[in-house]
From TrEMBL:
<feature type="coiled-coil region">
    <location>
        <begin position="953"/>
        <end position="987"/>
    </location>
</feature>
<feature type="compositionally biased region" description="Polar residues">
    <location>
        <begin position="97"/>
        <end position="131"/>
    </location>
</feature>
<dbReference type="InterPro" id="IPR009057">
    <property type="entry name" value="Homeodomain-like_sf"/>
</dbReference>
<dbReference type="GO" id="GO:0005634">
    <property type="term" value="C:nucleus"/>
</dbReference>
<feature type="domain" description="HMG box">
    <location>
        <begin position="886"/>
        <end position="964"/>
    </location>
</feature>
<dbReference type="InterPro" id="IPR050281">
    <property type="entry name" value="Flavin_monoamine_oxidase"/>
</dbReference>
<dbReference type="GO" id="GO:0010468">
    <property type="term" value="P:regulation of gene expression"/>
</dbReference>
<feature type="region of interest" description="Disordered">
    <location>
        <begin position="47"/>
        <end position="144"/>
    </location>
</feature>
<comment type="similarity">
    <text>Belongs to the flavin monoamine oxidase family.</text>
</comment>
<feature type="compositionally biased region" description="Basic and acidic residues">
    <location>
        <begin position="66"/>
        <end position="75"/>
    </location>
</feature>
<protein>
    <recommendedName>
        <fullName>HMG box domain-containing protein</fullName>
    </recommendedName>
</protein>
<feature type="domain" description="SWIRM">
    <location>
        <begin position="155"/>
        <end position="249"/>
    </location>
</feature>
<feature type="region of interest" description="Disordered">
    <location>
        <begin position="839"/>
        <end position="865"/>
    </location>
</feature>
<dbReference type="InterPro" id="IPR036910">
    <property type="entry name" value="HMG_box_dom_sf"/>
</dbReference>
<keyword id="KW-0560">Oxidoreductase</keyword>
<keyword id="KW-0175">Coiled coil</keyword>
<feature type="compositionally biased region" description="Basic and acidic residues">
    <location>
        <begin position="12"/>
        <end position="23"/>
    </location>
</feature>
Length: 1132
């Protein structure tokens, strides 16, 4: 079924360059006196200078990276255009022209003229009275005159800003399209999708319409553009947040008799994000509800507090700012909860904060000064070596993390996408057919665990020998410690109740036995540990060994920023813009009654019960209650939550981070620094044991100068780890006294007491019971995904339901977008692709002329089919040919350089002068540094690499010898199969003369045809039906050649009439050299048969018969070759 409204497909048959006149009813357009329909294309409305701030849309080199300089991504918000809509002129339908039963829906009901699903009355009944939508001109949304490469650069940047890869299908896109799209078409689809995203980035204040999205495509791709638009909208990649939706009337056949109710519990960022997204989706898909004879659902937000934001709370100060500070009349606030936006590039909050609400922000300066416990700045060199050791220890602990396999990605043609060009090829096999042929099955829906259990690393860590690494970092080894000493964490990792903290402490304790570590080093080290505990809101011993860094690799790019005037302003914007949401404050929920079998029971009613007895019936419930409240059991569920979800609630960790907020009359700290740290002493001042630092390291360890965002001279100190829990029971005065003592050590005795003090105690807040989630010690690898799974008509949202971005404000918002999509899918059904997604290309007179058959084509077709059938036959009988084993590196030096790549890079970076702009290290510098390190290597270390090299060579030679024996056996079998195959296929009298010389044609003839078939099999392409029939018939002949001859004759009859590729035949005039006789007598050697398909080596890399293909350069290893000579040559 078509995915487009009928009126948008009315012109599908006319030429793409021809735009027909608008219908006579076009005079009814509401603002026709201002714009002409054909003159105002969609591109004219979104190519204004209204784009969201971000990287400069510059011309992209085909080989350049898709990333941009992150230093330029936090520029000030540009003025957004007052343009009200991106869509073409709306249609004004006068009520007097409609039939008596047809009424105009209110402006919030519909976006499009007619519902995509069928209705009781045909659209044609009103065609003479209702004005028709202007036809869409192909690629009308692309601005005229723009260079293709510049346009491609803008589209690629837009995709990256929308958290999508511009070069690959999202796994959900792959599953949606795999039955319809071919590999070459992926490139065209990605260009189309990126073009739609560009429209959104250009002006995120106004929603992209379906007409504009379709205007990015050529006429054949209109259906695909509409489907892509639906996928982007329903998954929250475009048209989300505080966005305006164009108002168009809709035709209603009968007055609506039903309206569903959606209740969202919680007015935090996830709950408000979900409610706002639902409101927008119901407006954009109101035509689906019209088709169901329903009003768009009603969305009600229920909040326990008397404010919005949840754990994003900007509390107003009692003090007022200095009139000369520039904040006169502004609201001065303290960030009690979330306060930092961790990069804008790719972050959906970028569109909310800068593109829609226009909130001012301050980019934090990353320069940090660390002060020792005595108040003096810590030694910079000591800080650097400690930081290197801290990161190396984390790297070694990370080797025991969950081995999670990500869903496969399908990439387009990157050079074509960079140049803004579509693929010229249409392809033959869909992605599903290729997967089925390769027995891959459907792609994984989500992440998967590649291996179970904790792995063993031992002393073979990929990060090298600890002693050698420490010496490279700048540490001094203890007397008697060899450079071969290393850190082995296997015993600690496999111990009972092992956790991230226990294994990390074991790594530090082993390092203290290797290097000369002083108390200053331990204080510096534990400051970094406290910073890690701040990120996780808990002590390291409460973190999972396998999942403590489960969100690694999903960070945004750009500077960290703070919203001026309060982060909570974003939550208020979600509540109020573009129109207020219905929100009931001071309504804590006591009980949730839901329908676990909602999918099987239509129109199931659920309800929530508040503490004051108020009940609200709902068709769907979205639960964004914080994880701490779910753990407490204060909210009841009827029926009770199943054990699989209750177990995840228990296992996922939930910690606390508290703050001490101090305001002063005047700043006494460095005004050009936004962050500074203070090292804390352990209970035993001379202790070198990690456990002695656990209680104190997180107390007031990091300080933020928030004067630029709060409006007052203000400092915020963090209480992390065990100190965060201790804050819950400590007195405010004691905390202020401790903070003032620390500040006076650093900035002098003149530091005054603060004017105003605020202390957070999130663990005592009954509506949160903590700050944010973390990976608990017993957490399973997919617990975050488990928390996100719905229970019937009960959907879950919150930062604890998104494993890729947990414990973040943007993660909470993204979970709200996902929950809204799940609610919409359960109401109107999931998104499905139409069967005729990509109509076949219409043949032109020139193409028909090129494809007209000739006598030469008939001969060529016979030869091609014959060789294809033989290649498939060999593959079915013998399977794929063995391939060469991977050759080891050419010498011991190569092993050394591969194992120490990170150290080489670090030394190259350290060698640079201070202040040098970061850029890619030249390969020449890397090689010189590696050669120097190899020469400085201790003899025993070098001997280790020599032994590894020699062992690798021995193993390679052994595997190579086994391969040669298999090759000889395979060559003999292929020759026998060739004899049998030609004898049987030559029995057909009408083909005997043409096939007599096929087997012995020149090597190029065989290799050209067979390599084509091999490429198909190696890439997962299914074999044509008629060829499979030939293979089956010949396979039968192996058992009974006499009875199978007739079957092959009948099968080849079918192949004679089958169209094949029109590739030029380079062997038509080549004389046969080693033909097979009809009797099957062999007239060629085994090697001649193998050489007949030799060209496949360079083309495919995979061989069916003959010698295995080999693309990489072969490396020979002489028995008497000197490794020292090799090493010297490598260094030169």
């Amino acid at each position: 079924m078509s995915n487009l409204p009928d009126d948008l497909m009315a012109d599908a048959a006319h030429d793409e360059e021809q735009v027909k006149d608008v219908d006579d009813n076009s005079s009814d357009l509401s603002i026709i006196d201002q714009f002409d329909i054909d003159a105002v294309e969609p591109a004219a409305l979104h190519d204004q200078n209204t784009s969201i701030p971000g990287p400069e849309l510059q011309v992209r080199s085909p080989v350049s990276s898709s990333r941009h300089d992150t230093e330029e991504r936090s520029d000030v918000l540009s003025m957004v255009s007052s343009l009200g809509s991106k869509e073409t002129t709306p249609i004004d339908i006068e009520k007097s022209t409609l039939p008596s039963k047809v009424k105009t829906a209110s402006s919030h009901l519909a976006t499009f003229q007619t519902p995509r699903s069928s209705r009781a009355t045909s659209k044609s009944d009103f065609s003479s009275k209702v004005p028709q939508t202007p036809r869409i001109r192909p690629k009308s949304s692309i601005p005229p005159g723009i260079q293709p490469q510049e346009y491609a650069s803008q589209c690629i940047t837009a995709a990256e800003m929308c958290r999508l890869s511009p070069y690959a299908l999202h796994p959900d896109e792959h599953r949606l399209l795999r039955r319809y799209i071919t590999r070459p078409q992926v490139t065209t689809y990605l260009n189309l999708r990126n073009s739609i995203l560009r429209l959104w980035v250009q002006n995120p204040q106004v929603a992209v319409t379906r007409r504009e999205a379709i205007g990015c495509a050529s006429q054949r791709w209109f259906e695909a553009a509409s489907l892509c638009y639906d996928w982007l909208v329903r998954n929250g990649y475009i048209n989300f947040g505080c966005v305006s939706y164009p108002k168009e009337p809709s035709l209603i056949i009968e007055p609506p008799t039903k309206q569903r109710t959606i209740v969202v519990i919680g007015a935090g960022v996830s709950g408000l994000g979900c409610a706002r997204q639902l409101d927008g989706l119901f407006q954009q898909y109101s035509h689906d509800f019209v088709a169901l004879n329903e009003l768009p659902p009603r969305v009600i937000v229920v909040e326990a507090r008397n404010r919005v934001g949840g754990r994003v709370y900007s509390k107003a100060f009692n003090a007022t700012p200095d009139p000369k500070s520039g904040f006169a009349g502004a609201r001065c606030t303290a960030e009690m909860g979330g306060m930092i936006i961790t990069g804008f590039y790719g972050n959906p909050l970028n569109f909310l904060v800068r593109g829609q609400l226009g909130l001012a922000y301050h980019a934090l300066r990353p320069e940090t000064t660390l002060y020792d416990s005595n108040g003096l700045p810590a030694d910079l060199e000591s800080d650097q070596v400690v930081e290197h050791l801290f990161n190396d220890s984390l790297d070694r602990v990370s080797e025991y993390k969950f081995d999670i396999k990500l869903p496969p990605l399908v990439f387009g043609n990157m050079p074509l996408i960079n140049e803004g060009r579509d693929s010229n090829s249409e392809g033959t096999w869909t992605l599903k057919q290729m997967d089925d042929a390769a027995n891959l099955g459907a792609p994984a829906a989500q992440r998967q665990l590649a291996s179970r259990g904790i792995r063993s690393v031992g002393e073979q860590s990929k990060y090298g020998r600890a002693a050698l690494k420490a010496r490279e970092m700048g540490w001094k080894l203890k007397p008697g410690v060899s450079s071969t000493e290393t850190v082995n964490l296997d015993q600690a990792a496999h111990a009972d109740k092992a956790c991230m903290g226990s294994v990390f402490e074991n790594a530090i304790n082993q390092y203290t036995n290797i290097v000369e570590m002083k108390p200053l080093h331990l204080r510096l080290l534990n400051w970094h540990v406290a910073n890690l505990e701040y990120s996780n809101a808990t002590d390291l011993h409460n973190l999972s060994l396998g999942g403590w860094d489960i969100d690694a690799g999903n960070e945004w790019e750009g500077k960290h920023t703070m919203v001026i005037g309060g982060y909570q302003s974003m939550a208020r914007g979600l509540l109020m813009c573009p129109q207020p949401l219905e929100c009931r404050f001071l309504s804590p929920v006591q009980k949730i009654v839901y329908s676990p079998d909602f999918d099987k029971t239509a129109d199931s009613k659920s309800k929530i019960i508040c503490e004051d007895g108020t009940q609200i019936e709902a068709d769907h419930i979205v639960c964004s209650i914080p994880l701490g409240v779910l753990k407490s059991g204060n909210v009841q569920f009827d029926p009770p939550i199943p054990e699989w979800k209750a177990g995840a609630i228990k296992r996922v960790g939930y910690g606390v981070l508290n703050k001490l907020i101090l305001t002063y009359q005047d700043p006494f700290w460095e005004p050009d620094r936004d962050i500074f740290g203070i090292l804390r002493d352990p209970s035993n001042l001379e202790s070198l044991q990690q456990k002695d630092y656990a209680e104190s390291r997180g107390r007031l360890f990091q300080w933020f100068n928030v004067s630029q965002s709060s409006g007052l001279p203000c400092l915020v100190a963090l209480m992390a780890g065990k100190a965060g829990y201790a804050t819950e029971k400590e007195d405010d005065k004691a905390l202020v006294e401790e903070a003032t003592t620390l500040l006076r050590k650093v900035f002098g005795e003149d530091v005054p007491y603060p004017k105003e003090v605020m202390v957070t105690r999130w663990a005592s807040d009954k509506y949160s019971f903590g700050s944010y989630s973390s990976s608990g010690p017993d957490m399973q690898w997919n617990d975050y995904d488990t928390l996100a799974k719905p229970l019937g008509n009960l959907v879950f949202a919150g930062e604890h339901t998104i494993g890729t971005h947990p414990a973040t404000v943007h993660g909470a918002y993204m979970s709200g977008l996902r929950a809204a999509s799940e609610v919409l899918d359960s109401i109107i059904g999931p998104l499905r692709a139409p069967e005729a997604l990509f109509p076949a290309k219409e043949a032109t007179p020139s193409s028909l002329k090129r494809k007209s058959p000739s006598s030469h084509d008939a001969v060529k077709k016979q030869r091609q089919e014959h060789e294809k059938n033989f290649a498939e036959y060999v593959l079915s009988m013998l399977g794929p040919a063995p391939i060469y084993p991977d050759a080891p590196p050419p010498n011991a030096y190569s092993f050394f350089r591969r194992d120490n790549a990170m150290l080489i890079r670090q030394r190259c970076l350290a060698k640079r002068r201070a202040g040098t702009k970061a850029s890619k290290i030249p390969s020449k510098d890397m090689s010189q540094m590696a050669s120097r390190m190899w020469r400085e290597l201790a003899p025993d270390e070098r001997m280790t690499y020599e032994q590894r090299f020699r062992a690798a060579v021995v193993e390679y030679k052994s595997r190579l010898g086994d391969l040669l024996e298999k090759m000889r056996e395979r060559e003999e079998k292929v020759a026998e199969l060739r004899n049998m195959f030609d004898e049987l296929t030559a029995s057909k009298s009408t083909q005997r003369e043409g096939l007599a010389g096929i087997s012995s044609s020149s090597s190029s003839s065989s290799s050209s045809s067979i390599s084509s078939s091999i490429r198909n099999s190696s890439s997962g392409t299914p074999l044509p039906t008629q060829n499979v029939a030939v293979v089956a018939a010949v396979a039968q002949a192996m058992a009974s050649p006499i009875t199978a001859t007739a079957a092959i004759t009948n099968t080849t009859d079918a192949t004679d009439t089958t169209a094949t590729t029109d590739t030029t035949d380079t062997t038509a005039t080549t004389a046969p050299t080693a033909a097979m006789s009809p009797s099957g007598q062999q007239n060629t050697t085994v090697m001649d048969t193998a050489m007949s398909i030799a060209m496949m080596e360079e083309e495919t890399g995979i061989r069916i018969s003959g010698l295995p293909a080999r693309k990489m350069k072969r490396v020979s290893y002489a028995e008497d070759q000197s490794s020292d000579v090799e090493n010297e040559g490598a260094m030169k």
